[in-house]
Amino acid sequence: MVTEAGRKSTGMRIFFTGVGGQGTLLATRLVGEVALKEGLPVTISEIHGMAQRGGVVESSVAIGNIFSPTVADGEADVLMAFEPLETLRALPKCHAGTWVISNVTPIIPFTVATGKSVYPSQEAIYEPVATRVAKLLRVPALELAREAGSTMATNMVMLGVLAGTGKLPVKEASWQAVLVERLPGKILAVNQTAFALGWKLGAEAIHWDPS
Description:
Elements: H1 4-10, E1 12-19, H2 24-37, E2 42-44, E3 48-49, E4 56-63, E5 76-81, H3 84-89, E6 94-103, H4 110-113, H5 122-130, E7 135-139, H6 141-148, H7 154-165, H8 172-182, H9 185-205
Parallel strand pairs: 1-5, 5-6, 6-7
Antiparallel strand pairs: 1-4, 2-4, 3-4
């Protein structure tokens, strides 16, 4: 069993999960690149899922003295969930000290849209999560992305929340440099605004206690 002290000494594991088309994979790569910019050892997992077909997408980033990017059950220090139901499905990856950052906007599966199944309520999804982890941040990512100017920028909102929490030992200047380097000029301003809105929420969440 890995202790909390052991986790801190070996590094940090971040598990990403979402649905194809949400920009989960881009967010994963940007986290890896910003860690490299800070001179931190980093490895990124292979991509799992059907990103182009609306299927589940999973990836991970390991930062620090960690030899494998694979996140086993109970090893995720941060869970970045871009869809509510995927948050619940990924719960086994978490431990008692995990921070969960979850987008609250659902992507309705085909079976639900056709009436063959029912999408769980927010309470049914988040109550089991809240009791198992250190902190749960429910992010209105679509709302903030729309405020920034594009509903396509939800992944930047999510990244901003992660950055704002300070869970990663990365300076804001490094985040901004990676955004400028990797995002096309025509969409850079919108994504920077979305990132900033997420950052503000993440920074406020440091002191937020749901109890």
